[in-house]
Design a protein that fits this description.
Layout (H helix, E strand, L loop, with lengths): L2 H20 L21 E2 L33 E6 L18 H8 L2 E3 L2 E2 L4 H8 L34 H6 L4 E7 L25 E5 L12 E2 L2 E2 L10 H19 L5 E6 L11 H5 L8 H16 L23 H34 L6 E7 L16 H5 L6 H5 L16 H7 L13 H4 L2 E5 L9 E3 L3 E2 L3 H9 L6 E2 L2 E2 L23 E6 L2 E6 L2 E5 L19 E4 L15 H17 L15 H4 L10 E4 L19 E9 L6 E8 L2 E8 L2 E8 L3 E6 L7 E11 L8 E7 L2 E8 L13 E3 L20 E9 L4 H21 L1
Helix pairs in contact: 5-8, 7-11
Length: 817
């Protein structure tokens, strides 16, 4: 044996001793360095990589590598799947007694557990942030929708770093993570390539994201992101996002279980279904033909009877009163009944279609042999059913956001199209009330179980032996995250990415898995959305309806609100108000609400509507603040109204600098939104053309007679607004190199909103077409140097009226999200 090899062995031994002493003390009593087992403190994430001493061995042949450092999930940790349906009420799915056949969730319930006292926040973004963090929505700074954020803590619209999402917790503990479908947790002004991107899904713990960022999307032509990259729209005539997102989820899951079969996954599967627009293939609508001809009053009675037979409501449950604004079905005209029944057929088809697609994902998991150890939460609604379609429903939801009233006769013209790609529909509010059976109210009303109670099913064969049983412990959406951590054998992290964490505010419901009679551990919970507020405490609920879902003015000042009191242990549906009989209990709970409101940053309560939509007044960022011009370039696509200059209700010019090839050019220079309202500046057969699409109801076109010759050109469109109010008309004029080439009238314009998801595109019109004069994307075949939009002055009175109308429309859109 040589001297060198002896020294090498000595160095190796010393190095191993240092590793054992410095990095992993427990290894000093254990095996050789290559087998060192490192202690793992999972309360600090990411788990730090151990520091190995520098090697003193000269020749690698004489050295032993240090042990590999790898973060793995705890042994036997389950896969986790959260399914979150959008805008579906407690009484709509068949699994909770509703009329919509949902075989997938029924199958899971029959082999798992139904929860009939599970609660959400009554609105989309707040529920989602609470679900994915385990903290209350105000703790997430999402006390409302991001579009109505303010400068006050609890309402800034931006999740703080001290609130790490469960996806990040799981990812840093060895899980693969993915989200598919709807996100709507990123501040509206952050949804652009300019960011910041901190709160985009793939910066919030998800390795993979495929879906849409806002509150809703056109299911036939969605604006999607894969990670942070915008997805080119599909050209498949049979495309629907529900199927697409399912395909994407199955593909991603397949990769995980093929390449890393022992690594658990976390999938957040959040369809746009059944939020408006209600878009579904006709074959699914046909399944419900004639199923709702009896009307919403009879449907409430039928649903309650089914709920009692299933045991998901107590046998003594009574129907709570119907809101006075909802007409009796018997009092409706024949046309109203015909239209409304069709609207519900479309919605029901949408619900069954979504559930069936979810079934494909479940089957794919089962095919990997992993279903038994997959913890599934199937949450049937992120809030109560939506009454935002108003009293007669909508053919095009954007009419509502622009203050244009649709009538029954208007919508009946599209009777056969409803649900298809030429419509953007929503059903009448009466169906939402029926969908929240046995309760009174709907989505947005955080002070009623109609707005906050949603059915939930949990399925996990390896962790839950009970099958087909009911659980009636009182729980809230913030309880899902701690349940996942407990099931996975993970501690609550105290620090994530260097930031000390706000403690999780939810309570794990894992204790309910084996014990149907265990007392509820979630005993107190506040609710608040736009001044609608309530407090639950040990079976009692005190609440006040400050504004109904279809009301945009509050009923009375906050101090004058009328409170109600319910003993939920004896009154499942909240049908018996005890406020007058037990005023002392009511006062006690009102005081408790204020205590909880201070604790969770609910105060000051903000019931403002118009003011909250003005970024300057509330301190919310605004990318276009103070700007009167914007220059954009070819290839900039999908810019939402929140990050694009606002041309509505004022004069403006659009100037494009282009280079026309010798063969001529065609295509879009700049377009905003699409089929259901918007405008497009384009070349048709080489001729400069401008089309204004007023809500899909009327199109106005100004077009030059001659095509542009080859070479550089400056094309300008000028719009001279009439003034005299909002949504008025004006005169459009086209110029080429300073010479007027066409002029024409645009009789009406949209005062307040173009689209919830379709953005502005330079050099194309993606999504749906503004005009049927071309087929999307109608990409420009020449070169665009730049396009500049400049705003002109409007009269002060017009500006004020326009701003008020714009803010009201944004509020309506935000609330509908």
């Amino acid at each position: 044996m040589t001297r060198t090899s002896s020294i090498g062995r000595l160095h190796l031994a010393l190095a191993g001793l240092l590793v054992a002493m410095t990095v992993a003390p427990v290894a000093a009593q254990g095996p050789a360095p290559a087998q060192v087992v490192f202690p793992t403190d999972r309360t600090v994430l990411p788990i730090p990589e151990p520091q190995y001493p520098h090697s003193t061995v000269f020749d690698v042949r004489n050295a032993t590598p240090p042990p590999r450092f790898e973060i793995k999930a705890p042994a036997k940790a389950p896969n986790v799947l959260i399914v979150l349906i959008d805008d579906m009420g407690f009484g709509q799915s068949s699994v909770f007694g509703g009329p919509i056949n949902m075989p997938t969730v029924e199958r899971l319930a029959n082999n798992g557990l139904r929860y009939n006292e599970f609660h959400t926040t009554a609105l989309c973004s707040p529920t989602r942030s609470a679900l994915l963090s385990g903290r209350n929505h105000h703790t997430n700074n999402l006390g409302s929708i991001t579009e109505t954020a303010t400068a006050f803590p609890g309402n800034t619209g931006q999740r703080p770093n001290r609130v790490a999402p469960v996806a990040e917790m799981l990812r840093l503990n060895g899980y693969s993570t993915a989200a598919f479908g709807k996100s709507h947790e990123t501040a509206a002004w952050e949804v652009s390539p300019s960011g910041p991107t901190d709160r985009w899904p793939t910066r919030s713990g998800f390795d993979k994201f495929y879906g849409f960022i806002g509150g809703e999307t056109n299911q036939w032509a969605p604006l999607l992101y894969d990670g942070m990259t915008q997805v080119e729209p599909s050209t498949d005539p049979n495309y629907n996002f529900m199927t697409d997102m399912t395909n994407q989820a199955i593909e991603w899951m397949g990769y995980q279980k093929s390449l890393t079969p022992d690594k658990p996954f976390f999938i957040y599967f959040a369809p746009g279904a059944t939020h408006a627009p209600h878009h579904v293939p006709k074959s699914w609508i046909a399944k419900y033909k004639g199923k709702f001809d009896q009307g919403w009053d009879a449907l409430r009675e039928e649903t309650l009877a089914r709920q009692k037979r299933l045991g998901v409501v107590p046998a003594a449950t009574k129907l709570a009163p119907k809101p006075a604004a909802i007409k009796d079905w018997a009092a409706l005209s024949a046309d109203e009944k015909k239209l409304f029944a069709r609207q519900m057929e479309v919605f029901a088809g949408f619900g069954e279609y979504a559930d069936t697609e979810i079934g494909r994902l479940i089957q794919a998991i089962e095919a990997t042999g992993q279903l038994d150890n997959t913890l599934i939460f199937y949450i049937v609604g992120d809030n109560g059913a939506s009454a935002e379609g108003g009293l007669v429903g909508l053919y095009n939801e954007m009419t509502y956001f622009n203050g244009v009233n649709e009538t029954v006769q208007d919508i009946l013209k599209h009777y056969d199209e409803l649900g298809g790609p030429t419509t953007y529909p929503h059903y009448a509010a009466g169906w939402a009330v029926a969908g929240d059976t046995p309760f009174t109210w709907t989505k947005q009303v955080a002070s009623s179980y109609g707005g906050t109670r949603n059915g939930m099913v949990i399925h996990w064969p390896k962790g839950i032996t009970a099958k087909g049983e009911l659980r009636s412990q009182w729980h809230h959406v913030i309880d899902i995250t701690p349940t996942i951590l407990e099931a996975a054998g993970l501690p609550e992290p105290k620090s994530v990415n260097g930031t000390p964490q706000t403690p999780i505010e939810g309570v794990s419901l894992a204790y309910t898995f084996a014990d149907p009679k265990a007392p509820s551990r979630h005993t107190t919970q506040y609710f608040e959305i736009f001044g609608n507020r309530a407090i639950y405490d040990n079976g009692w609920l005190a609440s006040t309806v400050h504004r109904a879902a279809w009301e945009f003015k509050v009923r009375r000042p906050l101090e004058d609100d009328i409170w109600e009191l319910y003993d939920t242990r004896a009154d499942f549906s909240l049908a018996n108000d005890l406020a007058a009989k037990n005023p002392e209990k009511l006062k006690e709970l009102q005081a408790l609400f204020l205590k909880e409101a201070v604790k969770y940053s609910v105060l000051p309560i903000d019931d403002r509507t118009l003011e909250r939509l003005n970024a300057a007044l509330v301190g919310r960022p605004d990318l276009m603040a103070g700007r009167t011009s914007l220059t954009v370039y070819q290839g900039m696509l999908g810019m939402s109204e929140n990050v694009f200059i606002n041309i509505k209700n004022r004069s403006h010019t659009i100037t494009a600098e282009v280079d026309i090839p010798k063969s001529g050019a065609k295509g879009v220079l700049l377009a905003q939104a699409g089929r259901f309202g918007g405008w497009s500046f384009y070349l048709k057969d080489g001729k400069p053309t401008y089309t204004y699409n007023w809500l899909g109801l009327q199109r106005y076109t100004v077009a030059a007679k001659e095509a542009l010759p080859a070479g550089k050109a400056t094309i300008r469109y000028e719009f001279a607004y009439d003034g005299g109010g909002v949504g008025k008309g004006g005169t459009g004029t086209l110029f080429v190199n300073g010479k007027k080439v066409a002029t024409g009238r645009i009789d009406r314009t949209q005062c307040c909103a173009f689209s919830a998801d379709e953005g502005a595109d330079v050099g194309a019109d993606e999504g749906t077409p503004v005009t049927e004069a071309y087929k999307v994307p109608f990409k420009f075949t020449g070169k665009i140097g730049k396009v500049t939009i400049e705003l002109g002055d409007v009269k002060t009175a017009d500006r004020e009226e326009a701003e008020q109308a714009r803010k009201m429309a944004v509020l309506k859109r935000a609330l509908a999200d």
